[in-house]
Amino acid sequence: MSTAAADISKTRAWLMAARPQTLPAGTAPVIVGVGLAVHDGVFTLLPAAAALIGALLIQIATNFANDYFDAMKGTDEPDREGFTRVTAGGLIAPQQVKAAMVGTYTLALVVGLYLVAVGGVPILVVGLSSILAGLLYTGGPYPYGYYGLGDLFVFVYFGMIAVTGTYYVQAVATLDVGLFPIWIPPGTVPTDAVLASLAAAGLSTAILVVNNIRDIESDREAGKRTLAVILGYRWSRVEYVVLVALAYVVPVALWLLAAFSPFVLLPLLSLPLAISVTRTVTTERSGEALNPALERTGKLMAVHALLFAVGLSVPTVI
Prior knowledge:
The protein is mostly helical. 72% of the residues lie in helices and 0% in strands. It has a single domain, classed as Farnesyl Diphosphate Synthase, CATH 1.10.600.
């Protein structure tokens, strides 16, 4: 094999380890938080950019952690139906994946120093708990992702906390509270931000649900009791439908109950994609069908978030 070919192979392997199809789970909530900040007149560029970079780093580091720990625990097999895992597949040495995990989490901590200076103790708690939760998802003596708790982690951290945290660091930066506030200043986490976060929470978790439905058989054999393994195919599919539906209920609720502009309904334009991918998830079991469905769920989340952010921002911008 030529050096060029080897380099391309290694680059591709690292890209596989980062799992770009899951990255909307890190970026989309930040986009929604920025859109709401624009709507409320508290948009601040540097905190928003730092929140985006930090979210991406934590997402990638968590993907490295899952790849490494699943392989070390023997959960991943070379013939699994999902996307190839680089550690179990022998594409990258385990210690290299572990080093990448540590290095990426460290970069997230560096970015987090700025956010902690702006947001204080609340962001310090959120940032450290996010990293700890990412590590313990498949690592440690009690990997909670193996016991049906992964969905809750994603819903909370890659949905509610990601959106409200993004909004918070921008809102607090506009106040005269100085560096490192000890508590949450009034008005920096409004009810609307919590409600808006539920859309991102639903779609983030839906990405995980597709992944886990696809892996029900192999996870069951490996002793990994994801929520999909516990619920089985029928109720896991119901969970997916409810989570996707939640993403469309939220904009309507903001319009009807919180007096937002009709522009907030823009995410409904993505309904055809949502219906199409939901049809696949509710009828298929094979990796051949569900791997593309996982990618399409990620695309759905990205499109929904962009439309949501635009819909939130337009009344303030025009």
